[in-house]
Amino acid sequence: MEDGGVLKEGFLVKRAILGVRWLGGAAPQSLPPSSHDHLLPACLSGHIVHNWKARWFVLRQNTLLYYKLEGGRKVNPPKGQILLDGCTITCPCLEYENRPLLIKLKTRTSTEYFLEACSREDRDAWAFEITGAIHAGQPGKVQQLHIQRNSFKLPPHISLHRIVDKMHDSGSGIRPSPNLEQGSTYKKTFNGSSLVDWLISNGFAANRLEAVTLASMLLEENFLNPVGARSMGAVRSGDLAEQFLDDSTALYTFAESYKKKISLREDINLSTMELSGTVIKQGYLAKQGHKRKNWKVRRFVLRKEPAFLHYYDPSKEENRPVGGFSLRGSLVSALEDNGVPTGVKGNVQGNLFKVITKDDTHYYIQASSKAERAEWIEAIKKLT
């Protein structure tokens, strides 16, 4: 299991089974072990209840290990492992509407694993490394995947009408929803990255370059409309190759359902203002709680204009922050790695940093490496 060096490691959020709600009748006398995180056999007549847990993943040449964290450190032995020999990978995976950053792994024995990254870039980096590990014994296949990732070859006969019809499909199409940009909300919109993911997932494009080109064609033929300053500014650039943005902050809508923006200036609240800034960095970090002083993995999102640092609970379905604070007038600094610093509870040490807000609230945060800690400190300092 430990053969080979570490190819990649970091936080991912993993789907796990919480239990089974039985649909009539008593539960069977014999059940699979509760420690197994994969799907229960289809023959069991019940509703499977899932939850999502942040785990520390370590990718090796033929195995993907995942660990539970306690006190900011991974707990040995591993919580589990995914054998990559004969595995298939699906990325992007759009099976969960509220979790667009998923990777799906299906093992040789048809066990399915769903792993959620903190950003599209992180998801794609993990998918690329895992795919390489799966095909490590096939150099030709690895080379082919490298070429495919950067190739550009759309089919000769493309039906944009067929693509748009599929996008409108109530079951597997794009689902527009209200989105916020710069203090204004836009109804029935979707972002550029989600459309690119959808085009790849539905087989209309082999990679992101092809998907962006297809989306640009949909814009050019007036099947889509840009919405908001980010996407409208790109269209005004005049360069067809750069008109559509593969970006989670660029909004679009179906042409026939275009609605003018609804200004929130009169009834805007603080939380809306906080979340209206531009996202400049995000990632999984461990944070010490203020009351119990226990450590939890959170997805941190750093925004500017206005400058705020928010954190989200990755186990929750709602994409709402569970906390956050303004960076105006804040202080950020690294903590010593030799021993447990003052203010930190438990035997937690290494890669720690502290943010002190203007109202003297102290936040203790742990990164996964010294390099990551330095990146976060540098990014936060620019906004204080």
Write the layout of secondary structure elements.
Elements: E1 8-22, E2 46-59, E3 63-67, E4 69-70, E5 73-74, E6 80-83, E7 88-93, E8 102-106, E9 112-116, H1 120-134, H2 139-150, H3 160-167, E10 177-181, E11 184-191, H4 192-201, H5 208-220, E12 224-227, H6 228-236, E13 251-254, E14 262-263, H7 270-274, E15 278-288, E16 295-304, E17 308-312, E18 323-326, E19 331-334, E20 352-356, E21 362-366, H8 370-381
Antiparallel strand pairs: 1-2, 1-9, 2-3, 3-6, 4-5, 7-8, 8-9, 10-11, 11-13, 11-14, 12-13, 15-16, 15-21, 16-17, 17-18, 19-20, 20-21
Helix pairs in contact: 4-5
What's the gist of this structure?
It comes from Myotis myotis (Greater mouse-eared bat). Residues 170-256 form the DEP domain. The chain is of the alpha+beta class.
What brief labels describe this structure?
384 residues; alpha+beta; PH-domain like; Arc Repressor Mutant, subunit A; 3 domains; seven-stranded antiparallel beta sheet; 8 helices; PH-like_dom_sf; phosphoprotein; cytoplasm; acetylation; repeat
Structure in words:
Residues 170-256 form the DEP domain. Pfam families: DEP (PF00610), PH (PF00169). One of its GO terms (biological process) is actin cytoskeleton organization. Keywords: Acetylation, Cell membrane, Cell projection, Cytoplasm, Cytoskeleton, Membrane, Phosphoprotein, Repeat. It is a peripheral membrane protein. This protein has 384 residues and is of the alpha+beta class. It folds into 3 domains: 8-140, PH-domain like (Roll); 160-263, Winged helix-like DNA-binding domain superfamily/Winged helix DNA-binding domain (Arc Repressor Mutant, subunit A), CATH 1.10.10.10; 271-381, PH-domain like (Roll). 22% of the residues lie in helices and 33% in strands. The protein is built from 8 helices and 21 strands. It has helices at 120-134, 139-150, 160-167, 192-201, 208-220, 228-236, 270-274, 370-381, and strands at residues 8-22, 46-59, 63-67, 69-70, 73-74, 80-83, 88-93, 102-106, 112-116, 177-181, 184-191, 224-227, 251-254, 262-263, 278-288, 295-304, 308-312, 323-326, 331-334, 352-356, 362-366. Strands 6-3-2-1-9-8-7 form a 7-stranded antiparallel β-sheet. A 7-stranded antiparallel β-sheet has the order 18-17-16-15-21-20-19, covered by helices on one side. Strands 10, 11, 12, 13 and 14 form a 5-stranded antiparallel β-sheet that branches. A hairpin with a 6-residue loop joins strand 15 (278-288) and strand 16 (295-304). The radius of gyration is 23 Å and the shape is globular. The N and C termini lie far apart (45 Å). 30% of the residues are buried. Mean pLDDT is 81; it is low at 29-45 and 257-270.
